[in-house]
TrEMBL record:
GO MF entries: fluoride transmembrane transporter activity
Subcellular location: Cell membrane
Highest taxon in the source lineage: Eukaryota
Protein name: CrcB-like protein-domain-containing protein
Function summary: Fluoride channel required for the rapid expulsion of cytoplasmic fluoride.
GO cellular-component term (any): plasma membrane
Organism: Neurospora hispaniola
A Pfam cross-reference name: CRCB
Biased composition (Basic residues): 54-63
Topology versus the membrane: Multi-pass membrane protein
Catalytic activity line of the entry: fluoride(in) = fluoride(out)
UniProt keyword Transmembrane helix, yes or no: yes
UniProt record similarity statement: Belongs to the fluoride channel Fluc/FEX (TC 1.A.43) family.
């Protein structure tokens, strides 16, 4: 959905070149270091945004070797700023001696300028993507291009449905992994947020780097190749093709659901900040052990640094491990043709996910109203609602809030992803308030405690994200990355000190009345 990797505009080929050749030359020249066109060319020579240009480049460059039948999604321009990874974690997979890196600031500045210019003038009409001769050759070969245009309303419905469904799966994965990794004695890591954050970043890195699940020719049918096609393919710069492919796959609702919905809900920035505060206040205890032993402030500060360094280091390493995994198994995917079937995704899964997404959400609501253990002889032993079902009820709300906030705010400050920062701070504050209400002595009952636990695990867990946060840190310039990362951790901890600290250092935390 995002156009960040498709910085392929602004440089033009020779005057005698065809539009197809000029687009390919643009990519080649851009990657050779012609920064003037890169920084200024937010509108290409054809007047198209790089997202639209990348789609045309792939279909037109392969029109002589494949009959393009892609399902074209009508994507809103605001999707350019979505929180899914803008830039590939590994920009030099072949380890070339000389490479040119992209930055998040540069791409989002271009996207912002493009949106402003489009408000002043309409898009020019697009050129036909294949000539009459190409069409006749395809017709004689028995392969005729049949294009389907998905309306903007349908695209948004598919995207929202994927987000709802994968937010439920991401929440279940986070809660399940926390239960598996924090419920055994003598655990070397006693704060529960570390494993989900690491695992979610691995998946995010894989999706950002992968080129096999959604291939560059996704949605195209094979056609007999011509001799001149080999020469044309040889002129395509691999780096430019990779950028165009990343821009193309971000127009696919399934990809947005996986990257923004699943990975964003699998990881939780608010839980990370909560664990930092608990380390500072000496309230972290290993599972099954007694309350922490009293210690001086110096040791608490060391514990605070340990949580910060461990989480950020493992999350960043997970992002690159996932990217390296995608590079390593690319050959395997190609050899056994393991990519996602285009027909199944576009004609079956997109429609089925509307029922699955909203149906599963409704099922979570019904399970919260009538849980299987609702009439237990011991009400305090009821676990379903406090453990999972209330979290599933609130999870899609947090995920959708993050999705729309990123779409509308991330492009405001290219050097500081404002949308991700705002939702992380908001979710951290809400989690702190829910924690306080659950730990106030002699306040509320079991059901109220379970609802608050669901808000913390579901809404706050899906509203905040670590996977997107670390991918932005990896893509920003060094100075901006430290400013953004420091402001996020410092701002979140300051909120927790105000919200949770006011209870911790006055009345103290009481016992939780429900079983989470």
């Amino acid at each position: 959905m995002m156009t960040a990797p498709s910085d392929t505009e602004g440089c033009t080929g020779g005057q005698g070149d065809s539009p197809d050749q000029r687009n390919l030359v643009d990519d080649h020249n851009h990657n050779q270091g012609q920064d003037d066109g890169y920084s200024q060319g937010h509108v290409t020579g054809t007047g198209l945004h790089p997202l639209h240009q990348s789609q045309r480049r792939y279909s037109r460059a392969s029109s002589r070797r494949a009959s393009a039948a892609p399902l074209n999604y009508d994507v809103p321009d605001d999707y350019a700023h979505l929180e899914a990874s803008n830039i590939s974690p590994v920009q030099n997979p072949d380890e070339d001696p000389i490479t040119r890196l992209d930055t998040l600031e540069r791409v989002r500045t271009r996207d912002r300028d493009y949106l402003r210019e489009q408000r002043r003038k309409p898009l020019p009409p697009q050129e036909p993507e294949s000539s009459a001769e190409d069409y006749e050759r395809e017709k004689q070969a028995g392969v005729v291009a049949t294009r389907q245009k998905v309306s903007r309303l349908a695209t948004e419905i598919y995207t929202i449905s994927y987000l709802i469904f994968f937010s439920l799966l991401g929440t279940l994965a986070r809660l399940g992994l926390q239960a598996l990794t924090s419920a055994y004695p003598q655990s070397p890591l006693i704060f529960p947020s570390i494993w989900p954050n690491f695992a979610g970043c691995v998946v995010m890195g894989f999706l950002a780097e992968d080129r096999m699940l959604f291939r560059p020719d996704w949605g195209q049918q094979p056609n007999p190749k011509k001799d001149d096609d080999d020469d044309e393919e040889a002129n395509i710069d691999p780096a430019a093709a990779k950028k165009a492919h990343m821009a193309l796959k971000k127009t696919i609702p399934l990809y947005v659901g996986l990257a923004t919905g699943f990975c964003g809900s699998f990881t939780s920035f608010s839980s990370f900040i909560r664990d930092i505060f608990l380390a500072l206040s000496n309230d972290l205890a290993a599972h099954g052990s007694a309350a922490p032993v009293s210690r001086n402030g110096g040791y608490s500060f060391m514990a605070l640094l340990a949580v910060i360094l461990t989480t950020i280091s493992l999350s960043l390493s997970g992002l690159f491990v996932g990217a390296h995994l995608a590079i390593a198994i690319a050959t395997l995917f190609t050899r056994f043709d393991l990519g996602l079937p285009y027909t199944f995704v576009s004609r079956i899964l997109d429609r089925l996910i509307v029922l699955l997404g909203f149906g599963c959400w409704l099922g979570a609501v019904l399970l919260s109203i009538w849980p299987p253990d609702r009439h237990s002889a011991q009400p305090e032993k009821e676990r379903w609602r406090g453990t999972a079902t209330f979290a599933l009820v609130f999870a899609p709300l947090g995920c959708l809030t993050r999705f729309f906030a990123s779409a509308h705010l991330n492009g405001r400050l290219p050097s500081f992803p404002l949308g991700t920062f705002v939702v992380n701070m908001l979710g951290t504050a809400v989690l702190g308030m829910a924690w306080d209400l659950n730990h106030v002595p002699s306040l509320g009952g079991v059901v109220g405690c379970q609802v608050l636990q669901g808000v913390a695990d579901g809404f706050c867990g899906c509203l905040t994200t670590v996977s997107t946060w670390v991918s932005e840190l990896a893509a920003l310039r060094r100075r901006h990355a430290y400013v953004y990362g420091g402001a996020s951790v410092g701002g979140g901890l300051a909120l927790m000190v105000v919200v949770m600290g006011s209870l911790r250092w006055t009345e103290g935390f009481g016992e939780v009345k429900c079983i989470s």
